[in-house]
Automatic annotation (TrEMBL):
Organism: Bos indicus
Subunit structure and binding partners: Component of the KPC complex composed of RNF123/KPC1 and UBAC1/KPC2. Interacts with UBAC1 and CDKN1B via its N-terminal domain. Interacts with RIGI (via N-terminus) and IFIH1 (via N-terminus).
Catalysed reactions listed for this entry: S-ubiquitinyl-[E2 ubiquitin-conjugating enzyme]-L-cysteine + [acceptor protein]-L-lysine = [E2 ubiquitin-conjugating enzyme]-L-cysteine + N(6)-ubiquitinyl-[acceptor protein]-L-lysine
Gene from which this protein is expressed: RNF123
EC class (word): transferase
Protein known as: E3 ubiquitin-protein ligase RNF123
Length: 1283
């Protein structure tokens, strides 16, 4: 092979010396005695006893091969023994998993037949080799900590999807998930395992015992008296549930935790190891000295100072070494046991700079003296071993193991040629290299040394989240504990930061774009692999077990952000016209010019193929981009033909796009277009990404709204886009999951405080109770000590201030990207949905996940960011360019949550007035075919705190129940917005159709929601009254409670509308006012009658207090109805009050006793019924003085007196009406309208309500042209006159 290093070309074969006379001339380069001394020093005997200079045979390059053969000779007896079948073991010498017949269930086995992933309920697999005598050991690397049973079984064991290893006779297993051992029966055993642990399985068939170790620590003997004898041989075996994964080491690699006296199932390659160790000694000798031909002596040197200066003597010596060493370095065991150990020793022995120099020397020599395929195989095995060591190394207090492995990784990757090979062929293709950026959380804090690092523990008494008050002041003792705990956390954080900085250095090497001397720069190789990595994790068709775990993705995201910002700001320093990373965003043309592939991820406007067809004219006019018709047709056919056969593996590569200019390479004029054609990511060059003098690369198709000068290097923009996608894929969910540790701390802290309170209250004479309480107190305290130390780790590794700033930076990137995309008009539809999702979710994470240690309010530009996000939510929740139902719902829910908190609500009020008005106008649009429940929720939050008795956070009847998470939006203190209320009032007054259409939809939804609620509680009541034992479906209970809550919120919206714009109902000069008022009165009477009747359906269901119906109670719905009535009958002008009273009393459903019920005046019992129990409590607003003030109660009393008086007067003045004069639709009001041209009649209320939704006659279905007033007396007189 020809090497490219140092300007020299050598071939290993050219150094294979023979007795050719010409070879002897080479010895002339140095004195023969000096050469002999040098070679004797390099190729010393294995016992390291120097021979006397006079007695030893002179060495030169003629007799060196013979000397080297003697040096590497291994005793033949030892070699033969290693090859023979060892007594006590049966099976192939190379031990792997038996994937041909020794399994049960569906399992995914790795190519090396050592890794396995469960793909069925409880799959089982055993090895190909068994043992029947002696002491044996194998190791299992735990990749996931779920349900698995690991151990031994015989060939006669029969397993199925329910019974695995340990569930049958003669099979034995350890289960670290449930912390038990299994052999038909089960008992407690061992400790819990975690992902990253190593389980050692030991069997002693001489004594008949079986035991296990976890990370080298013995768990004790698990089983004794194993069955032995004729036909009894034991196979290593495992049973594992769905998606659980492990990797076995039967001895193909050095055991991490060997045990004296126990032998691995697969013998190590002893001969190769001996030879490799001796050759390594020779190699180290070369690196530790230099020849000085002038002085004629050997000079001792540090390995870091050694240089390959082209001396023929040294080169020939190394050639002889590598002639024998190269084949050995292709063996996995040798690479890990010899080469890895040597390189780790170099890293551990000196400072990083010196270690890196030595590693570079080694790699230079590997590439120089070995064939390319040999070096590549060696590097592949080296990185695999290094990643395995890093992933499964235990957490020690100073993290020294992780630091050494990462430093060696950096040293290898800083070697340019090795880095490019690994990046192109290994890091993302063979390895899950993201592991290098992960810092695993210790499950056992004692083993991680956190007790010494954080000797004092502390936990917050209540998290000071927004809307939650502090319970009490901190005592001096608690303050001292907290400060000591914080100091310990800082010590831990500094140690973790050392590891994180090394991980960032790795990514800086992979993102280097200056190393393009020998081919493509590392950054562009990384981009191709990174995009493929994103595709594998984003595609729903991907193999789920092979996806990157979310905990790895979180760490990868933060390290990638740090490296990305470093290069971004470095480029800014060299190009002043570009932008700082603090101003970063993704330009909108990347979303529509086809240069970056977004796989099958949804766009805001729908499918990409649809957008390209419908917006092709806009692309041509705004961005000078033409879609190739052939390309468009191919894309469309791909979309339609989803069932076609999959492409070959080689063709399944990420697709992106390049651009071909329809004109020569020169600046485009405004009239010239760019035609887009697709191109595989592997085919892209640096020019395709970065562009050239006449090519904008990724940024082709710049819209006129975008600045001409570039933000930064185009390749960094693609990395930034990938970072945003990563957050959307799994990072946000994992951030939410890690909050569970904090929640556990809060729960145990509450339990401990309750126990301490009981101890203080318990009488001293009850020693039995005191003993139990003291025991509970000790358990809770120990658990809190453990959890508080784990929480310190989580806060340092996941929720630190720096991590919070990364998420905040990502939020601001998304906000700028959305703002710039919005300016492109219709082309905004090309933006992927995940940009809006990340903007919403990252804000949620900052607000909810990083407290109480860090607050979002501390971040720079906090208020400005809140305002910009508010403007985006306000504008886009009803944006017609966004068609996806899920993203529209997410925007609506985000806005609903946004207006629940004072800080974010103030941000909504700070956005420009025209945007605020547009937002309110969209909220008031008719509710049909829209997420009206969320819309209504937003309007209710704007009103909460202003309505009648509407100042509560939790409902009064729920105060004594278990407190909920006070960070929930629904449990925030009222924070009404008078500014937005005023906008709503102005819009309702604005046009003749706004208020009627809005109120018609509100009344329709109220009618539906309350009717559904009543129907459901009827079913619940019937189920509860059955004699047989039955259960109500929890989903039905949830829907029932939702309908009730919707009814209450809709009533509150009506209360707000009547308060702000009473003339909509009371000014009958408006054409729809009377109709709206009658509909409102009808619904209010319906609600009152259903809720206030004594011993009725509602009352009985409330009394049941079923789980899931906690919010269903008299108070919330009755105070909402009362608020509407008070506004109509007490606060309105005299004329309006009179109209409202007449309409209310005219409704046939009106009952005065429903109004009396509000003040605790019960309904008199019907004749013949039993009297109510004297101790029965009646509902009364007067009982809720903490929620309803004296003034409001006086208004209710005034309303009751008014209705009592008006009802009596109406009863005295009413005239009997014959049935034929009543409306044939409702039979409640007299006929007052006639339809033209058909002449049918009804009351005005019925026809007005009908005409809002339909123009056909009730009876004949003729189209109604007009409606005229109808007066029976006037019609009769007119008829007689005509006669």
């Amino acid at each position: 092979m020809a090497s490219k290093e140092g300007g020299m070309a050598f071939s290993r074969k050219s150094y294979k010396l023979t007795s050719d006379a010409e070879r002897s001339r080479v010895t002339g380069i140095v004195h023969e005695k000096l050469l002999s001394d040098y070679l004797h020093r390099v190729f010393a005997s294995p016992d390291h006893r120097p021979a006397a200079a006079t007695s030893r045979k002179p060495l030169n390059f003629q007799n060196l091969p013979e000397h080297l053969d003697q040096l590497l000779h291994v005793d033949d007896k030892e070699d033969e023994e290693s090859q023979e079948q060892v007594e006590g073991r049966l099976g192939p010498s190379t031990v792997v998993l038996d994937h041909t017949g020794g399994f049960e269930g569906l399992l995914l086995v790795d190519d090396d037949l050592l890794g396995v992933i469960g793909h069925s309920n409880f799959g089982t697999i055993r090895s190909t080799t068994c043992v029947y005598k002696g002491k044996w050991i194998y190791e299992v690397l735990i990749s996931s900590q779920g349900l698995m049973q690991i151990g031994w079984c015989t060939i006669n064991c029969r397993f199925n999807q329910e019974e695995g290893v340990g569930d049958t006779h003669n099979s034995y297993a350890y289960d670290g998930n449930r912390v038990r051992k299994w052999n038909v029966t089960t008992t407690n055993y061992g400790k819990a395992w975690a992902a990253g642990d190593i389980v050692s399985c030991l069997i002693d068939l001489d004594e008949g015992t079986l035991s296990f170790s976890l990370n080298g620590v013995s768990l004790g003997t698990a089983f004794e008296n194993l069955s032995r004898g004729l036909g009894m041989a034991y196979f290593p075996a495992i049973s594992l549930s769905f998606k659980e994964s492990v990797a076995f080491n039967f001895g193909s690699r050095p055991l991490r935790y060997p045990v004296a006296g126990y032998r691995p199932l697969q013998d190590p390659p002893s001969t190769s190891l001996v030879r490799a160790q001796r050759l390594l000694g020779c190699f180290r000798a070369v690196l530790s000295m230099e020849l000085d031909p002038v002085e004629g002596r050997l000079v001792e040197k540090e390995s870091s100072e050694w240089q390959l200066q082209g001396q023929p003597t040294v080169l020939l010596t190394l050639a002889h070494i590598f002639h024998h060493f190269a084949p050995l370095l292709c063996e996995v065991y040798v690479v890990e046991a010899v080469l890895m150990s040597f390189l780790l020793g170099v890293v551990e022995a000196g400072p990083p700079e010196q270690a890196q120099t030595v590693v570079h020397h080694v790699l230079d020599l590997l590439w120089l003296f070995m064939e390319d395929y040999e070096v590549q195989d060696c590097l592949k095995q080296l990185m695999m071993s290094l990643l395995r060591l890093y992933r499964f190394s235990p957490i020690v207090p100073d993290l020294s193991l992780q630091i050494h492995y990462l430093r060696l990784t950096i040293a290898i990757l800083s070697h340019e040629k090795s880095r490019k090979f690994l990046l192109s062929n290994v890091l993302f293709d063979v390895l899950r290299s993201v592991v290098f950026f992960y810092i695993k959380s210790p499950l056992r804090v004692e083993e991680a040394g956190l007790q010494e690092l954080i000797p004092t523990t502390w936990w917050p008494h209540r998290s000071p989240r927004e809307g939650k008050e502090e319970v009490r002041e901190e005592t001096s003792e608690e303050r001292l504990r907290r400060r000591a705990y914080e100091r310990g956390c800082q010590r831990l954080k500094k140690r973790i930061e050392v590891v994180e900085e090394l991980q960032v250095q790795i990514l800086k090497l992979l993102l280097n774009n200056k190393d393009n001397n020998g081919g493509e720069a590392s950054r562009y190789i990384f981009l191709t692999k990174f995009r493929k990595f994103l595709q594998e994790n984003a595609s729903g068709r991907g193999n789920t077990p092979m996806l990157c775990p979310p905990e790895y993705m979180v760490c990868f995201l933060h390290r990638l952000i740090s490296a990305l910002r470093f290069y971004w700001d470095e480029y800014k320093a060299s190009k002043p016209r570009t932008s700082f990373s603090e101003e970063a965003y993704v330009p909108p043309q990347i979303f529509y010019n086809g240069k970056v592939d977004y796989f099958d991820l949804q766009r805001l406007g729908g499918l990409l193929s649809h957008l390209r067809k419908t917006l092709k004219d806009d692309l041509a006019s705004k961005a000078n981009i033409l879609i190739d018709p052939m390309e468009l047709q191919a894309t469309t056919m791909d979309d339609l033909d989803e069932d076609e056969e999959p492409a070959p593996a080689a063709a399944q590569v990420p697709r992106t796009a390049a651009v071909s200019l329809m004109t020569p390479r020169r600046p485009l004029s405004a009239s010239e277009k760019v035609k887009v054609r697709t191109l595989s990511a592997e085919q892209r060059t640096r020019e395709d990404i970065e562009g050239s003098q006449w090519n904008e690369g990724l940024l082709v198709g710049r819209p006129p709204e975008e600045p001409e000068h570039p933000l930064t290097e185009n390749s960094l923009l693609e990395v930034l886009d990938g970072v945003v996608m990563m957050y959307n894929l799994s990072v946000h969910q994992q951030l939410g999951k890690m909050v569970g540790v904090s929640d556990d701390v809060n729960e145990y802290a509450m339990a401990l405080r309750d126990t301490e309170d009981k101890l203080r209250r318990c009488p001293k004479r009850r020693k039995d109770i005191l003993a139990e309480l003291s025991k509970s107190q000790k358990v809770f305290s120990e658990k809190l000590d453990h959890l508080s130390r784990r929480l310190a780790w989580v806060h340092a590794a996941v929720y630190s201030q720096e991590k919070m700033q990364d998420i905040y930076w990502l939020l601001r990137v998304c906000l700028r990207t959305i703002e710039h995309g919005d300016r492109t008009g219709s082309l905004f539809a090309f933006m992927p949905e995940f940009y809006l999702s990340v903007a919403i979710n990252s804000y949620s994470a900052l607000k909810n996940y990083f407290g109480p240690v860090h607050s979002m309010e501390e971040l720079p530009g906090y208020e400005e960011t809140l305002t910009r996000l508010a403007a985006i939510l306000a504008k886009h929740f009803a944006d017609t360019r966004i068609v996806g139902t899920d993203i529209r719902d997410s925007l609506m829910q985000a806005l609903a949550s946004y207006v629940c908190y004072p800080n974010s609500l103030r941000a909504v009020e700070r956005i420009p007035e025209e945007q605020r008005i547009a937002m309110v106008r969209n909220l008031l649009a008719p509710y049909e075919q829209r997420p009206w429940a969320q819309t209504n929720w937003i309007l209710v939050r704007l009103w909460r705190g202003c309505g009648f008795g509407y100042r509560y956070t939790r409902l009064p009847h729920l105060l004594k129940t278990k407190p909920e998470d006070a960070s929930l939006p629904s449990l925030q203190k009222p924070c009404p917005s008078t500014l937005l209320q005023q906008h709503m009032a102005d819009l309702l007054r604005e046009g003749p159709d706004v208020a009627p259409s809005f109120l018609n939809s509100v009344l329709n939804q109220l009618n539906w929601a309350f009717s559904e609620f009543i129907g459901m509680i009827q079913e619940i009541q019937q189920a509860a009254e059955r004699l047989e034992r039955n259960f109500v479906d929890s989903r039905q209970l949830k829907v029932c409670a939702t309908c009730f809550d919707l009814s209450v919120s809709l009533l509150r919206v009506l209360e707000m509308t009547i308060t702000l714009v009473p003339e909509i109902f009371l000014d009958w000069a408006r054409p729809t006012s009377e109709m709206l008022l009658r509909r409102l009165a009808q619904l209010l009477n319906q609600v009152l009658n259903r809720v206030t009747a004594e011993r009725n359906l509602f009352d009985r269901v409330v009394t049941l207090r079923l789980p899931g119906l906690e919010s269903v109670d008299h108070y919330p719905i009755l105070v909402a109805v009362t608020g509407i009535l008070v506004r109509l009958l007490v606060h309105g002008p005299a004329s309006g009050t009179e109209r409202a009273t007449s309409v209310l009393l005219a409704d046939p459903c009106f009952q005065l006793r429903s109004i009396s019920y509000l003040l605790g005046q019960p309904e008199p019992p019907a004749p013949g019924t039993a009297l109510p129990a004297p101790d029965r409590k009646h509902f009364s607003l007067q009982s809720y003085t903490d929620y309803i003030n004296v003034e409001e109660l006086a208004q209710v009393e005034q309303m009751l007196a008014h209705l009592t008086s008006a009802s009596a007067q109406a009863a005295a003045a009413s005239l009997p009406t014959s049935e034929e004069d009543l409306c044939p639709i409702c039979y409640a009001h007299p006929i007052s309208a006639v339809f033209q041209p058909c002449g049918h009649k009804s009351c005005k209320a019925c026809i007005d309500q009908h005409l809002m939704n339909n123009k056909d006659c009730f009876f004949c279905k003729a189209t109604i042209v007009s409606v005229e007033d109808w007066d029976k007396a006037a019609h009769a007189s007119a008829t007689s006159s005509a006669a």
